[in-house]
């Protein structure tokens, strides 16, 4: 299937990779491909979730709070507690050895990395929800337009009905003319905000070369070498934090854009609904008039 | 509960009598029968006697069809389907199918599309992906006729997902790319483009043609200039590199890293497992050769 040739010489992998459990190496290997799982959760899946069994083969089962990387550096939970309360139980920061302080620095760096990663995770979730909200708003806009089209169709049918009602009645009866206060306009098409469209757009910025990341550059994801001393470990964590913060910054910028788009779309909906309300109000007035005429004719 | 059933049976009996009355001089019997069947069905519905309620809604629908009031007939079939949903999926599908046919006939395309999509959802719950796909496809066509662009996209996304699950990758890729192109024109839908391109890229990966994957990534960057800065692009690029190197461990690490931030849906996990299995087979073959 994969045409690329692989050299028989294998490059030695860092020890962290060796120790890392493969999420694929489970009972999934002999998976029956004829059965396809739907995107919705089945009852069995729900049961698994509540039991705490992981259904996603890629989930490593670690919570966000669990410090996964700290096990690599061989910290004991006793040390964690010591670090958590900033050495209050063991004479404060001043009375610690250099080695203890180095370990503490690594622990703090890891803690910060985890916090930043959690922030990124939350921002990604928000982005996902915001994307869905925008789709729903788009759908809502279409529905408003369709409703307005229907109102225009009702106007057309009502006009014919009014003509028929006008022609009914006795030979000497006074000709009836329906009361109309205003014409039915139908949906008013409002395009996208031209300022947003032409100017402040990510694509335009990209073309102008205003964005930071060069095209097609992928971050080096494989860790170079296992860090040996505390300083290197802290540096590794700092690099991770930088990457995560950079991603977070991009995400927040995008979320701002989404919020602006949501706002302008809702504004458009308000305007469209105002027009629709006016038209429906006029239709209501005319239907009442037509009903009165009908009753009068039946009463004769 | 008991009084609802008693009331329902009484109304059903009256409806049957109206239906089989010899002398239809006094009023429209069919109309009365349809109304009585509907009331009877509602009573059984309140008594949670779903099958009985559904069968009475069907009788009401048949009366409406004889009266040539198709809209009411279609709605009665929908009511019947919603009752059948509680007990029999096949019954619900059958009734919804009839409703879709009627709504299409009378030009209510959006209603027809809505219920066609509902049939697709029922098949999806039953894990019948092939049928689910065809009904979502039909829904997309009907939504298109009804001029509901967003609903068309939503249905097409599901169609593409099912195509990927059924290993019809080329079709899935085409749909995802078309949706991405369409979405770029909208201020609101452009934010979903990266997701569609990711899905398309994953389908490319399963096909295993490294040149095609590389070309696709370049094409996606031209399609959406902001795509190269996204996590999705980096994910696809890293997966592609790991496949090219035949490095299963790197592949797994990349997937795990992405999944830790954005959890993958089950069908995407399945696709990636297929890729990994293929890589393992390739690795074994290479080991045998050396």
Describe this structure in words.
The complex is a heterodimer of chains A (300) and B (290). Chain A has one domain. Chain A is built from 7 helices and no strands. Chain A has helices at residues 15-19, 43-51, 77-84, 98-167, 194-198, 202-208, 230-299. In chain A, helix 4 (98-167) packs parallel to helix 7 (230-299). The termini of chain A are far apart. Residues 4-22, 24-54, 62-76, 193-200 and 214-221 of chain A have low confidence and may be disordered. Chain B is mainly alpha-helical and 290 residues long. Chain B has a domain at 178-290: Tetratricopeptide repeat domain (Serine Threonine Protein Phosphatase 5, Tetratricopeptide repeat). Chain B contains 14 helices and no strands. Chain B has helices at residues 2-19, 29-46, 50-66, 70-84, 89-105, 109-125, 129-145, 149-165, 169-184, 193-207, 210-223, 231-245, 248-261, 266-289. In chain B, helix 10 (193-207) runs antiparallel to helix 11 (210-223), helix 10 (193-207) runs parallel beside helix 12 and helix 13 (248-261) runs antiparallel to helix 14 (266-289). Chain B is elongated. The termini of chain B are far apart. At the A-B interface, helix 4, helix 6 and helix 7 of A face helix 6, helix 8, helix 11, helix 12 and helix 13 of B.
Please specify the SSE layout and strand pairing.
The complex is a heterodimer of chains A (300) and B (290).
Chain A: H1 15-19, H2 43-51, H3 77-84, H4 98-167, H5 194-198, H6 202-208, H7 230-299
Chain B: H1 2-19, H2 29-46, H3 50-66, H4 70-84, H5 89-105, H6 109-125, H7 129-145, H8 149-165, H9 169-184, H10 193-207, H11 210-223, H12 231-245, H13 248-261, H14 266-289
Which descriptors apply to this entry?
heterodimer; A: 300 residues; mainly alpha; 7 helices; B: 290 residues; Serine Threonine Protein Phosphatase 5, Tetratricopeptide repeat; NPSN/SNAP25-like_N_SNARE (chain A); membrane (chain A); protein transport (chain A)
């Amino acid at each position: 299937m994969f045409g690329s040739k692989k050299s028989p010489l294998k490059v030695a992998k860092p020890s962290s990779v060796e120790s890392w459990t493969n999420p694929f190496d489970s009972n999934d290997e002999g998976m029956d491909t004829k059965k396809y799982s739907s995107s919705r959760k089945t009852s069995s899946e729900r049961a698994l979730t509540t039991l705490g069994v992981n259904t996603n083969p890629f989930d490593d089962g670690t919570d966000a709070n669990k410090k996964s990387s700290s096990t690599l550096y061989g910290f004991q939970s006793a040390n964690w507690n010591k670090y958590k309360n900033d050495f209050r139980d063991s004479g404060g920061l001043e009375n610690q050895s250099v080695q203890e302080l180095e370990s503490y620095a690594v622990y703090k760096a890891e803690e910060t990395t985890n916090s930043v990663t959690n922030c990124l995770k939350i921002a990604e979730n928000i982005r996902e929800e915001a994307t869905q909200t925008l789709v729903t708003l788009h759908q809502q806009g279409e529905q408003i337009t369709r409703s307005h089209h229907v109102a225009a169709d009702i106007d057309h049918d009502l006009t014919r009905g009014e003509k028929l009602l006008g022609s009914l009645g006795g030979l000497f009866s006074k000709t009836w003319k329906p009361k109309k206060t205003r014409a039915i306009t139908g949906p008013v098409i409002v395009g996208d905000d031209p300022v947003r469209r032409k100017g402040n757009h990510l694509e335009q910025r990209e073309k102008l070369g205003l964005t930071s990341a060069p095209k097609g550059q992928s971050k080096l994801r494989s860790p170079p070498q296992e860090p040996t001393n505390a300083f290197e470990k802290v540096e590794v964590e700092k690099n991770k934090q930088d990457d995560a913060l950079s991603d977070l910054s991009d995400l927040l910028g995008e979320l701002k854009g989404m919020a602006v788009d949501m706002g302008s779309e809702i504004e458009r909906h308000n305007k469209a609904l105002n027009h629709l309300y006016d038209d429906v109000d006029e239709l209501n007035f005319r239907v009442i008039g037509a009903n009165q005429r009908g009753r009068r004719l039946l009463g004769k | 509960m008991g009084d609802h059933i008693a009331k329902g049976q009484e109304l059903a009996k009256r409806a049957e009598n109206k239906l089989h009355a010899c002398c239809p001089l006094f009023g429209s019997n069919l109309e009365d029968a349809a109304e009585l069947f509907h009331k009877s069905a509602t009573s059984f519905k309140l008594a949670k006697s779903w099958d009985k309620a559904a069968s009475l809604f069907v009788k009401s629908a048949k009366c409406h069809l004889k009266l040539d009031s198709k809209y009411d007939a279609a709605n009665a079939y929908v009511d019947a389907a919603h009752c059948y949903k509680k007990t029999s999926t096949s019954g619900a599908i059958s009734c919804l199918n009839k409703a879709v046919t009627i709504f299409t006939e009378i030009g209510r395309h959006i209603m027809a599309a809505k219920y066609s999509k509902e049939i697709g959802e029922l098949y999806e719950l039953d894990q019948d992906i092939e049928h689910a796909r065809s009904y979502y496809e039909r829904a997309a066509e009907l939504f298109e006729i009804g001029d509901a662009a967003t609903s068309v996209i939503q249905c097409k996304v599901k169609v593409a997902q099912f195509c990927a699950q059924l290993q019809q990758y080329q079709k899935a890729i085409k749909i995802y790319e078309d949706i991405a192109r369409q979405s770029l024109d909208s201020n609101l839908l452009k934010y979903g483009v990266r997701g569609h391109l990711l899905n398309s890229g994953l389908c490319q990966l399963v096909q295993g043609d490294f040149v095609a994957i590389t070309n696709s990534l370049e094409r996606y960057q031209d399609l959406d200039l902001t795509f190269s800065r996204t996590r999705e692009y980096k994910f696809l690029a890293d997966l592609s590199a790991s496949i090219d190197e035949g490095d299963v461990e790197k592949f797994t690490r990349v997937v795990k890293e992405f999944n830790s931030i954005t959890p993958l849906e089950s069908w995407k996990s399945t696709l990636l497992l297929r890729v990994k299995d293929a890589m393992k087979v390739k690795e074994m073959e290479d080991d045998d050769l050396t």
